[in-house]
Write a structure and sequence with these properties.
34% strand; elongated; mainly beta; 4-stranded antiparallel β-sheet; 6% helix
């Protein structure tokens, strides 16, 4: 203030996620307070009796400049020091007409090396949080930024999927990778991009319209659907597949969570009768056929896949030194005549069978099957998927 400053660098004012900061100064007492997300984190005494003259310069970051992202900055000609007043500023309009320097004016008069992000991107980055879980995506909306929306009217791409949690501060959605309209929109060799959106219930246009807040933000009368995406590496999926008939075991044991694709076992070579989750691990006699399907969780607009590796182990550990490779580098084990591939016209699905066995050192162990896949462009005539077993 007027060339004087106080260093609050010992406080964690800035982080990788957006926070609300409020700085207030009283000329009469010289009191300076800094609040982060409604809580006081720094105090000082600065320029008691000082006066800010007209025609001065309002600078962010002092003589060193500011490096980072700022959104919805408003400057007021007032002092506040009560908890309720401080927190009330978090609920103010994004460009507050009662401010002496509102956000809109700040955007128009900013100088220096500044890049103005699109308003929608600022809004989304400030008031949403995304977590990518193994089985789905969790999107959190901060209600302070979406006060114009009724949570009861919000759904995902599948209208049946509504918020999993609503309280006074947050609205949380969970989009399962295999449900809620979640779709694959992009892929790489070993990873896939899943996508979903928050929108108004019954809206075919995928647009969340802003009904009563046109004057609060520059999103020009409507807010786009709130889209969110997560990349998933196609790491190995494991499934306990069977136990030798002589062994007793607890039914219902399951392998780790699926990440992007799943392994399903079938009773028959037509792949018409799948084992249920409650039946795993399954009881089978030795030298019986096991029919295996590997499939993407979502197949709309999906790439094709090829099974690059499938390994059996007597434990859930893929790197167990006791193992048997059924498929290596996309080809069946050449020393095993009982591995058979089955053709299917469905993209994102591959099928094969093998004959049951037991590990000599662990004759009563449940056998785990670990599979890895790779992606192919369905239009590429020379892809691994199209060439199939011809290169084995």
């Amino acid at each position: 203030i007027n060339g004087r400053y106080h260093n609050c660098s010992s406080y964690s004012l800035f982080s990788s996620s957006p926070s609300h900061l409020l700085v207030t100064w009283n000329s009469g007492w010289g009191n300076v307070s800094v609040y982060k997300d409604g809580y006081q984190v720094c105090t000082a005494n600065l320029q008691q009796g000082g006066v800010i003259e007209k025609g001065g310069e309002f600078r962010i970051g002092g003589s060193y400049g500011f490096r980072g992202e700022i959104a919805y900055l408003n400057v007021y000609n007032t002092f506040t020091n009560t908890t309720e007043d401080v927190r009330s500023y978090r609920r103010r309009s994004f460009s507050d007409p009662s401010a002496i320097i509102p956000w809109n004016a700040f955007l128009l008069n900013t100088h220096g090396t500044v890049r103005i992000l699109p308003e929608y991107d600022i809004f989304k980055n400030t008031f949403t949080r995304l977590k990518c879980h193994p089985t789905g995506m969790e999107l959190t909306l901060l209600r302070v930024g979406f006060s114009f929306l009724d949570p009861k009217e919000l759904v995902l791409l599948n209208d049946a999927c509504r918020p999993t949690l609503v309280n006074s501060t947050h609205v949380i959605f969970f989009a399962n990778l295999s449900d809620c309209g979640t779709e694959v929109i992009n892929y790489r060799l070993t990873s896939v991009l899943y996508h979903n959106e928050v929108r108004l219930r019954g809206s075919p246009s995928r647009v969340v319209r802003q009904a009563d807040a046109i004057n609060r933000t520059r999103v020009e009368g409507k807010l786009r659907s709130i889209s969110f995406d997560c990349w998933y590496d196609m790491t190995t999926v494991k499934q306990p597949i069977y136990a030798p008939h002589i062994t007793s075991f607890h039914k219902g044991g399951r392998g780790g969570s699926t990440k992007g694709f799943k392994i399903t076992l079938y009773h028959d070579s037509n792949f018409s009768h799948a084992f249920t989750e409650q039946e795993y691990p399954i009881n089978v006699e030795m030298e019986k056929e096991v029919f295996v399907e590997v499939a993407l969780l979502r197949r709309e607009r999906s790439p094709d896949i090829w099974i690059s590796r499938c390994r059996a182990t007597p434990s859930a550990d893929y790197f167990d030194p006791v193992c048997y490779d059924l498929i290596e580098y996309g080809c069946p084990n050449a020393a095993d005549d009982h591995i058979q591939y089955y053709n299917t016209s469905r993209l994102g699905v591959r099928r094969f069978s093998f004959q049951t066995f037991r590990f000599n050192d662990y004759p009563s162990a449940v056998v785990f099957l670990h599979c890895q896949i790779q992606f192919c462009d369905p239009a590429d005539a020379y892809s691994r998927c199209r060439r199939g077993l011809n290169i084995c």
